[in-house]
Amino acid sequence: MCGIAGLVDRGGRPQDAMDAALARMQAAVAHRGPDGSGRVRRDTGGTRGVAYLAHQRLAIIDVSDAGRQPMTTRDRAHWITCNGEIYNHAALRADASLAGTAWRSASDTEVLVEGLARHGTAWLERLRGMFAFAWWDEPAARLVLARDRFGIKPLVWAQPAPDLLLFASTPQALAASGFLSLVPVGGSDAELLARGSLPAGTSYWRGVSVVPAGHAVIWEGGLPRVERWAPDSPWTSPVPRERPAGEVGREVHAAMLDTVRAHFVSDVPVALFLSGGRDSVALLAAARALQNVPLRTFTVTMPGSPLDEGRQARVAAEHFGAEHTELTVDAMDLDEALDGFFAAMAQPSVDGFNTFLVARAARRAGITVALSGVGGDELLGGYPSFTEVPRLQRALHLGGAPLRRAAPLLARWPYGRVARLAAIAAAAPRSTAEVWWEYRGLWSRPEVRAFTGDAMPQARPEGAGADGDPFTVIRACEWREFLERQLLPDADAYTMCHALELRTPFVDHEFVRAVLAAGRWSRGSSPTYKQALFDAMPDLTVPALRGEPKQGFVLPFASWLREALTSPRPPQWADVAHRLRVPRYQAQVDRFLAGRLHWSRLWALYVRERVGQ
Question: Of the candidates 170, 266, 333, 603, which lies 20 to 30 Å from 352 by C-alpha distance?
Answer without folding.
Answer: 266
